[in-house]
Amino acid sequence: MNICVVGLGLIGGSFCKTISKRTVHSCFGIDANEDTLNKAINDGSIKDIITLSRLSEMDMTIVCLHPKQTIEFIKNNADKFKTGSIVIDSCGVKGEIVSSVSDVLKEKGVTFIGCHPMAGREFSGYDFSLENLFDNASFISTPSEDTPREIVENLKELMQTIGFKKFVVTTPQEHDRIISY
C-alpha cells in the first residue's frame, strides 16, 4: 500500500518512521519545509517526496496538520485523492473536521475517517519524532455509520502493527465530549 503523510511534524514524522520501519508499506511525504523532507528522505522515513498531483497514487493519506489547515488541505485537494482511497487525520478535535470534509470526499469516492492518535511529547517538529511514539498508546477512530467494516478493520490492523495497543471506535461528538472533559 502507498501511504502519504502530509505534515511531517512530531506526529506525522513519527507515522513516517514507524510505517517505514515496521510495515511493508511505502511511505511518502508532503511538507512545506524542504529541510524536513530532506531529513525524512535521508533517514529512510519516506521513500519519496511527492507533489500534490501524486496524491492520486496513494491508497491512504494521513493528514497531520492543525485543524483549520487539515480542513483546508482536504477540501482544496479533494479532486486529487485516489478514488477508493482512505484519508485520515490526526487532530484532537473531530466534530468540525468530520462534518467539514466527509461529504466532500464521499462525493469523490474517497473514505474519510476522523482519527486521533493519543500520543505526543513535550517537543514538536520532525526532529523530535520517534519510531516508537505510538507504542502502547490508544488510537481513536470515528468512522461514519456507512464506512465499510473492512476499511475500519484494515485501519485497525495497520495501527496495531505500528504499535498502538488500543483501537477505539466512537462518534466525533463522543470523542470531542470526552477530550474536552
Written overview of the protein:
There is one protein chain. The protein has 181 residues and is α/β, with parallel strands linked by helices. It has helices at 10-22, 34-42, 67-76, 95-107, 149-161, 172-180; strands spanning 2-6, 26-30, 48-49, 60-63, 86-89, 111-118, 138-142, 166-169. Helix 3 (67-76) runs parallel beside helix 4 (95-107). The longest helix has 13 residues, at 10-22. It is globular and about 40 Å long.
Helix and strand topology:
Elements: E1 2-6, H1 10-22, E2 26-30, H2 34-42, E3 48-49, E4 60-63, H3 67-76, E5 86-89, H4 95-107, E6 111-118, E7 138-142, H5 149-161, E8 166-169, H6 172-180
Parallel strand pairs: 1-2, 1-4, 2-3, 4-5, 5-6, 7-8
Antiparallel strand pairs: 6-7
Helix pairs in contact: 3-4
Strand line-up across the major sheet: 3-2-1-4-5-6-7-8
Helix count? 6
User: Beta-strand level of the residues, as a percent range?
Assistant: 15-25%
SSE ordering = EHEHEEHEHEEHEH
Rg on CA atoms, Å: 15 Å
- Alpha-carbon distance between the two ends: 37 Å
Global morphology: globular
For the secondary structure, the number of strands is: 8
| Class inferred from helices and paired strands | alpha/beta
Mean pLDDT: 96
Would you identify the regions where 5 or more consecutive residues have pLDDT less than 50? Answer: none
Helix content: 25-40%
Main β sheet profile? 8 strands, mixed
